[in-house]
Amino acid sequence: MPRPNSTFSLLMQRMLQSPYRLLLIIVFAISGNILMLSGPKLIGQVIDLLSLNQGRVELEFIQLLIILAVVYLLASILHWLLGLMSSQVSAKVIFGLRTDIYNHLDKMPLSFFDSVPYGSVTSRISTDMDQVNDGLISGLPQLFSGIVSLFGSLYFMLIISWQVTLLILFLTPIIMFVSRIISRSSYNMYSKEAEQRGVLNSMAEETISQHALSRTLQAEEQFIAQYKEMNSELYNYGQKAQFYSSLTNPSTRLINAISYILCGFLASYLALKGELTVGQVGSLLFYANQFSKPINEITDIITQLQAALASADNIFNLLALETETTEPGTMPNLNVKKGRIEFKHVYFSYDKSQPLIKNLNLTIPERSKIAIVGPTGAGKTTLVNLLMRFYDLDGGAIYIDQQKIADLTRQSVRRGFGMVLQDVWLFKGTIIENLSFANPAASRAEIEKVCEKVEADQFIRRLEHGYETIIGEETTLSQGQKQLLTIARVMLQDPPMLILDEATSDIDTVTEMRVQKAFHEMMKGRTSFVIAHRLSTILDADLILVMQNGDIVEQGDFSSLMQNDGLFKHLYESQFNPV
Prior knowledge:
CATH topology of the largest domain: ABC transporter transmembrane region fold
Structural class: alpha/beta
CATH class of the largest domain: Mainly Alpha
Radius of gyration: 35 Å
């Protein structure tokens, strides 16, 4: 995890991307606080004017009051402009962070999403980003104003009395020492709180998304107990963080009050000796309070700043993760002519200590229908993930029409396949928007024709708004209806090669027969991979690959495999002739 100072420097680098606004912030902070600091000196002159009771007191008194009013009015305007500029800088930083983190996630390898819970990722984009935003909006004006006010009040005190100034300087390190000890403890607690919040969000998201399953298994009490335990940990971290941060302000204010009293005694003593006027004593007390005010203001927002830094740590840690290797602009695109695929001496493993695919050699004939079967964990999905370059090989190479896919752009390789998965993905939008997502140039007539082929047109037209129905808002579709839409979307894409991962698992038998017919038409002239659990759907496959533990243990058509007393025959008979 980055140290707080490195995290702050990373935030500063992003703020420096708005140099003109930062310059205005500095100008407004300096000019506004100088005007504000000149007020106590003018008040001191008013006090001396009244105490001396000299001639023309009334005129000079009115003049000083007018000047004082103008000074404070201008100072207020400048402080408002300071807050405005700070908000703009903060908004730009957050905009840049949101854009960068989204683009970064888009370039992350699939292995990242396999190992990191979704809730943890969404927590970085939402909660952590909001914490940083709040910290910057509050912290920027306080930071610049505090620095100017600190040195400005010190200067004005120095020109009035070096003795009182020396006393203030002697007491200041004590305030800063106490503040630093407490803030370090609160930062550690806020870091743990931010981490635990991501874990809790992840658990909540998974539980809510699978609420039907949890109720079926009657696991509500188990999940509730687990959530309470994790929430209790989050509560404890939050309480400790709040406790430490809440100590800072009263501690520093106590020391400030003591220093204020000591300054009052010293200034009064110097006034009795005739070294200071009554007005100067008043001004010194104002400046003594003004000098401690920036420190108090910083400690007031220390909770927000520490929370913002802890959240910024999470964001920058994510941005520091290695993405997929950048491809050179000269890298060629895949050009599918026939769809002949070759695996040559392919090695792959998710965990280097546990090899999965070892020295795989395989030739897929052009324009053929390939079925991939095998028990759970055999490597069926891994095989097509390697084909689409979702993972990089540990060794060997894969060729499509004699083109090595590692030497081609990832986008072109993935664009060469149409993919229908068991897990349905539809975004919030109209049905027509979801379908045309794969082919924006498709006409309404083309979309409706494809939907008719997959038996989706009938249920779409029965909806109140038909193809303009917003998914997830105006109506709730069944899992089977959603899967029909994803199948229609791939058919509309019209890709040169297909990958179907149990694409009809949630469709009734009658509809499945019609969809299989549509698939059969779509597969003509295309190299197609079908990952099947129901072996009845792949009887017409040109080649069946039987996988076990990452290896292809059998291959051939249905008739030849059934003649062998191997794994495929065992799998087939276990489905249709269970013991």
